[in-house]
Amino acid sequence: MAYLIVGGGGFLGANLVAALQENNDFTKLFILDPCFKLSQYTHLKINESNITWINGSFLDSDLLDEILPGIETVFHLSSIGHTGRFGASKHRDYVQFFNVTGTERLIEKCRIHHVKRFIYASSIAVCFVGKPIYDFSESDTLPPKEEYLDIYSETKADAEKIVRNSSTFEFRTTCLRFRAIYGPQDVCVAQKVVVYNITDGLKIGQYTVWNALIFALGKSPPKLFVSYDLVSFFVSVMGFICFELFGCSPPLTRFELEVLVTDNTYSIEKAQKELGFNPEKDNFKQKTNGSDEKQNRKSVFYS
């Protein structure tokens, strides 16, 4: 079987490649990404000899016509707008084009070249709008378009709808809504169609998560706290300055703030039942304790 991973050159792609190789799931593997960084994830066992890296974009129609013949499964991991310069309002149209139109055109090409399966990396951003939610399931209705916190969330929801509506018996699609993607050496923080929430399965507080990381870095948790209103004002100001004036990511985005201070849990019952998904318990603690980061390295919290 031949697989194509679109946007597979980073952290998520590296872990996907390692898992596919471990299970001997393919005969040929192609990675379409302008940046190929798999070799930097030294903790993973990746054999690059049977991987073909294609330096290009999935927005290139002619390139897709060259790659897709013979491909059985496509993993679509690529999106923009969550962080970086594309979070600025002036890039709204391009983020829409990249995340939504690009996904739609990729699906069209997959159908033309008889791809059988399409797996889309979605996000809990499609259902979280800064309001408390508890055990949100795949069958629950998504929020209205005007309630989304940023263009990334809005376009991920639009793209997910396209993926879900494109599924047939000949071309099966699956959407995986990731809650958070993390791990060692991460530098970021039988139906026709199926959608699954993918989380660790544990309901934990934010301090449980961040304290584990802080201690792993050899630091102490902060003792001073500030009000939500003050931080919210800071986020608004820094968001404008960083995104609109300097074209870079702010220290904290509006979405990141709201997801930090708002209860939000997601049901994984469907993924467990239909995919056999069995998350590792207390996985964040294991990942931070097992990290090869030096404890005297400066953290994101302390200088």
Automatic annotation (TrEMBL):
Region Disordered, residue ranges: 273-303
Instruction: Check the record and name the InterPro entries matching this protein.
Output: 3Beta_OHSteriod_DH/Estase, NAD(P)-bd_dom_sf
Protease as a keyword of this entry, yes or no, is no
Its keywords, alphabetically, are: Oxidoreductase
Q: Where is the composition biased (Basic and acidic residues)?
A: 279-296
Annotated 3-beta hydroxysteroid dehydrogenase/isomerase domain ranges read: 4-193
Task: Cite the Gene3D superfamilies for this sequence.
Answer: NAD(P)-binding Rossmann-like Domain
Q: Name one GO biological process term.
A: steroid biosynthetic process
Question: Which molecular function GO terms apply here?
Answer: oxidoreductase activity, acting on the CH-OH group of donors, NAD or NADP as acceptor
| Any coiled-coil regions, as ranges | none
What superkingdom does the record give?
Answer: Eukaryota
Q: Name the Pfam families for this protein.
A: 3Beta_HSD
**UniProt xrefs under PANTHER family:** DTDP-D-GLUCOSE 4,6-DEHYDRATASE-RELATED (PTHR43000)
Family from the record: Belongs to the 3-beta-HSD family.
Name listed for the protein in its UniProt record:
3Beta_HSD domain-containing protein
